[in-house]
Design a protein that fits this description.
The protein has about 150 residues and is mostly beta strands. Helices cover about 5% and strands about 60% of the residues. Strands 6-3-10-1-12 form a five-stranded antiparallel β-sheet, with no helix packed on it. Strands 5-4-9-2-11 form a five-stranded antiparallel β-sheet, with no helix packed on it. It has a two-stranded antiparallel ribbon with strand order 7-8.
């Protein structure tokens, strides 16, 4: 199990996808804050967006000939009576194959980025801890983010 944290000052994490079968499975996300949000978890969850992006650059003779990107949101659901800031996810982000033009050769995405973005300001500082499993991928780098292991 690998853990990483995202917050305002560390909004993204990047992974290198080593093959077409690579995946990241997000088991759960925990909201870490000093304040007890109790029944107002929806308020803090609605103050940010989470997303992931698969991307790849395709080169030919040292020049970029194509850039592929696929972005999707990561949705956190809050139950009406939920008071604990732990969100079971079981979201599996799988690598995908694609072709370019009429060339039948299969390419796959090379980079996965998981990103946190503030959409409404909340004065309280908080972090999101991701409990994940990785398959055939490596931690690449993070935009000022922590990787916990």
């Amino acid at each position: 199990m690998k853990l990483f944290i995202l917050n305002k000052s560390r909004p993204a994490v990047f992974f290198s996808l080593n093959g077409q079968d690579s995946f990241l499975q997000i088991k759960k996300i925990t909201l870490i804050t000093k304040r007890d949000w109790g029944n107002s978890l929806t308020s803090i969850i609605s103050s940010f967006e989470l997303s992931y992006e698969l991307s790849s650059m395709v080169y030919k003779e040292g020049c970029i000939i194509d850039e592929r990107k696929k972005s999707l949101p990561i949705t956190i659901s809050v139950s009406p009576n939920q008071t604990q800031p732990i969100f079971e996810m079981d979201l599996k982000i799988k690598n995908e194959c694609f072709t370019i033009g009429s060339n039948p050769n299969q390419n796959h995405y090379e980079t996965l980025r998981v990103e946190w973005k503030e959409i409404r300001s909340i004065p309280e500082e908080f972090e999101l801890k991701f409990d994940t499993e990785l398959y055939d991928m490596d931690f690449k780098h993070q935009a000022n983010s922590q990787f916990l292991l």
